[in-house]
Amino acid sequence: MGTFRRRYRSVAMALASLMLLAGCGLSAAAGSTANTASASHQGPFKVAFSNAFIDSNFRVQEQKDMQTVANEFVKQGLISSYTAYNANNSVSTQISQINDIIQNHPNLLIVDATSATALNPVIQKAVQAGIKVISVNDLVTSPYVTRVNVNYIEYGKLAAQGLVKLLHGKGNIVSVRGDPGLPADVTIWTGEADVLNHYPNIHIVSTFWADWNPPTAEAKMASLLATGIKFNGVITQGGEAWGVAKAMINAHRPLVPIIGGGTVGFLQIWNHYRKLDGYNAYTVGNPPALASYALEVGMMELQGMKVPKFVTIPLVPVTDQNLSQYLNQPIANRFDQLRSYSNIQGIVKEELAGKKVPFS
After folding, report:
1. Among 59, 101, 145, 322, which residue's CB has the most CB atoms within a 10 Å radius?
2. Helix (H) or strand (E) holding 171
3. How would you write the pLDDT of the chain (360 residues) with one tens digit per residue?
């Protein structure tokens, strides 16, 4: 546990500046340097989406959800054009693409970032050019943006608490993480570590990164299982749970409790073995529709509506009680939850009123 604690402390320190901005909303001082792009209340508006990558099932569905919601705004005459960019997980590519976006001068730019800090100068440049910028999912630390996200610290805490409960506070576990260095991976891990650090009888016996991707997780878990390692549970951050479960089944290893990010394929495996032998798991969902929520928040801002500098989207936990609600979506998808424009407006109003709704 000594190595675990040292790793936790270093990650927590690295996140300190981001959490000061994003943990529960921006401070008044940071708010004074907020997104200052002028609003055009009439429309139609030009919108661009700069995505870090689209190689995981989350990002593929995120892109589809964005297109779906953008199409609805086009039909309503509120959006004149929508363009999506894929940076292939390259910071320099994303910076270059955002510079190109600035030249096209959209009204709204939504960014799912490759880096919490490296994009800040080009984002400031966009805002100074009169473009509203929304940071979503993998957040930037720039004080010039509006942020839309779930609370990833809370996400990690809930996931770890779910595993602790299923293991009755003791056992050896495998930690499967997302994409090394991306803000969401680091932030979720910080929440997980904050809980696990209080349980000395839970030991992390192996950690690997699988890019939130089921096939990658399946291959890496298969290699780990081939070593003969023994463990009592697995905590994952996203789509990896499906791959982990498939690797264990293929290796004829009994399924241990797996904490997942909600791939429908994993939920279906969970449901099958729940009926077969009472198997149980737990999932905390950050729906891929997050970016579409950011689009809806951005449209609110463009139309002159008041929006807080941090919009926190309620998390969606899945237990055996509500598992059946999410089984009929496409098997390769992260379980998803598109929200109406009026629903997002309701969340924004509650946030402005100081109310907190942690679950949905």
Report:
1. 145
2. strand 171-177
3. 333 333 333 334 333 333 333 333 332 222 333 444 444 577 899 999 999 999 877 898 999 999 999 999 999 999 999 999 999 999 999 999 999 999 999 999 999 999 999 999 999 999 999 999 999 999 999 999 999 999 989 999 999 999 999 999 999 999 999 989 788 899 999 999 999 999 999 999 999 999 988 999 999 999 999 999 999 999 999 889 999 999 999 999 999 999 987 789 999 999 999 999 999 999 987 888 999 999 999 999 999 999 999 999 988 889 999 999 889 888 878 888 889 999 999 999 999 998 765 555
Q: Which residue has the tokens 């964005």?
A: 66
Q: For domain 33-150+288-315+338-352, which CATH number applies: 1.10.1040.10, 3.40.50.2300, 3.40.50.720, 3.30.70.890?
A: 3.40.50.2300
Given a contact cutoff of 8 angstroms between Cβ atoms, the answer to whether 186 and 14 are in contact is yes
Report the alpha-carbon distance of residue 108 to residue 222 in Å, rounded.
44
Those residues with Cβ within 8 angstroms of residue 206's Cβ, 6 or more apart along the chain or in another chain: 174, 175, 224, 229, 231
Name the DSSP letter for residue 176: E
The ranges of the chain annotated as CATH 3.40.50.2300 are 2-14+152-285, 33-150+288-315+338-352
2-14+152-285: in CATH 3.40.50.2300: yes
- Is the Cα torsion angle 242, 150, 319, 340 positive or negative in sign? negative
With b for 16 or more beta-carbon neighbours within 10 A and e for fewer, the 116-125 pattern comes to: beebbebbbe
Q: What is the DSSP string of 91-102?
A: HHHHHHHHHHHH
pTM over 0.85, yes/no: no
